[in-house]
Amino acid sequence: MVSIGHGAELKRAVRFVLSLTAGLLLLAAVGVICGLPEAVSAAKSISPAWLLPLSAVYSISWLLRGARLRMALSMQGVSKGFLDSLSLELAADLVNQFVPARLGDAVKVVYLKRRDGLGYAEGIFSAVLVRILDLAALLVLAGLCLVMLPAGSGGAGAASMAAGFAVLSIIILAGSLFWFRPDGFARLLAGPLHRFREPILRVRDGISGAGRRVPGLFLISCAIWIFDVMTLYIFLAALDINLGPVETSFVLFLSNLAKAVPFSPNGLGVYEGATVALLTGFGVDQARAFAAGVLDHAFMNLFSALLSLGALARLGLSAGALGEMSRTAASLRDTAGSGQMTPEPLAGDEEVVP
Hints:
Elements: H1 6-34, H2 36-44, H3 51-74, H4 82-96, H5 104-116, H6 120-148, H7 158-180, H8 182-187, H9 197-206, H10 214-238, H11 245-259, H12 270-281, H13 286-315, H14 319-337
């Protein structure tokens, strides 16, 4: 049986504190560079009435996330209600807000094992499938934005079009390898990416019998990103920043790609810094660009955290239970990453609740 020792827990706690401190320092540095007093003044000028469209748009984004997880689980033969699927996504996101390594996906695997009896392999399949589709949708949409940037906007021109076509070509090539030559695709994952070989091959094997559902999941992933773009677009409008939908999409997509680097919990400081760099590239002044990045990121995190409270209640999870599942998920992730996954139960998994 695999157990999590005090040394491992302490090490993870230290990593969390260090990553949180780094994220806060980066955020503070960006704020000082951009002019913090001016940014605060711009943020204060926003009417609370803007919360209505923001909440409506971002709620739709979360509803789509719940629908996507429900479809992914159905591919594994798990019939889960929409509200339960949505609640599970929210609970996982709550974990992701406090852990820099996207541990929420592993928490979903542990929960599904305990509550639904879903095997670890099948749970990992569902989690990795959703993550792959999210990344594929993000890259495809970012490539399209590069091609479609209006003439005269920051970064537009032959170079951006060439980069866009290059991104789309790489996505098509990678997708073709993944589908027709999965072993060859897996061999390309070298170095730190080596631990993703087995989960990705498992996903490829898993969708062989349900491939018709994958395009629908991909379209839902694209729709989720579009509603996230609309959330940023509303903040830009509230700050009197006149930026077109393509440029706004480009800013959000690249900022989220930067946030994917496990530097700080949920990309704290990284997202805001990337947003400032991209918005100023389109001619937005630094203070309002910083205000937009901070408000957009903070709203998404706080809104999701508030929804997570109801999600935990529906799932019957306390904060302590979620923390214990996070520790079990960390052990599961480390075991899977070492390539030594065993059928033995992890700590806390001796019994499976039907």
